[in-house]
């Protein structure tokens, strides 16, 4: 299993939190806001590249939850969303759950998730129950 590290990048107003072990490499962040998210650069996240509103909007589009944020003046680790939880099945991909959920593992440990969480449907993920992008290599049809 991949080492579970967390990296943080800030522009002074918002802190971008990246958890690479959750990333499914959809490239939505890079395609949507390449001035901030560019995997060809080091560091790959440069929050000075756009205003806070644009960064937050792009992070909310992350399908895996690998990217999250908090406002520096709020000093909280996750931004909970309001409203109903919505489940979406992606063709040939993961099950996306939008909203606040608590995931309980086989040992009984609970992890709170907010915004979007991608769950594996193909059975090939090395980070179950979360999607790690293995469905692409496995040629998953579903």
Summarize the structure.
The protein is of the alpha+beta class. It has three helices and eight strands; from the N terminus they run ββααββββββα.
Question: How would you describe this structure to a colleague?
Answer:
By secondary structure, the protein is α+β, with helices and mostly antiparallel strands. It has two domains: 7-71, 2-Layer Sandwich (Alpha-Beta Plaits); 86-138, Ribosomal Protein L9, domain 1 (3-Layer(aba) Sandwich). It is 13% helix and 24% strand. It is built from three helices and eight strands, in the order E-E-H-H-E-E-E-E-E-E-H. The chain has helices at residues 28-32, 52-60, 134-138; strands spanning 7-10, 14-18, 67-71, 86-89, 95-98, 101-104, 110-113, 116-119. Strands 1-2-3 form a three-stranded antiparallel beta sheet, with helices on one face. Strands 4-5-8 form a three-stranded antiparallel beta sheet, with no helix packed on it. The protein is globular, with a radius of gyration of 15 Å. The model has no long low-confidence stretch (mean pLDDT 86).
């Amino acid at each position: 299993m991949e080492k579970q590290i967390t990296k943080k990048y800030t522009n002074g107003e918002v802190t971008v939190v990246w958890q690479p072990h959750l990333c499914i490499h959809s490239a939505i962040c890079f395609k949507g806001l390449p001035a901030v998210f560019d995997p060809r650069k080091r560091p790959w996240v440069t929050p000075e590249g756009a205003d806070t509103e644009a960064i937050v909007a792009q992070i909310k589009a992350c399908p895996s939850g690998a990217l999250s944020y908090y406002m520096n003046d709020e000093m909280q680790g996750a931004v909970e969303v309001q409203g109903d939880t919505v489940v979406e099945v992606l063709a040939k991909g993961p099950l996306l759950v939008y909203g606040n959920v608590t995931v309980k593992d086989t040992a009984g440990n609970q992890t709170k998730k907010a915004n979007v969480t991608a769950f594996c449907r193909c059975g090939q993920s090395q980070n179950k129950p979360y999607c790690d992008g293995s469905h692409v290599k496995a040629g998953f049809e579903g």
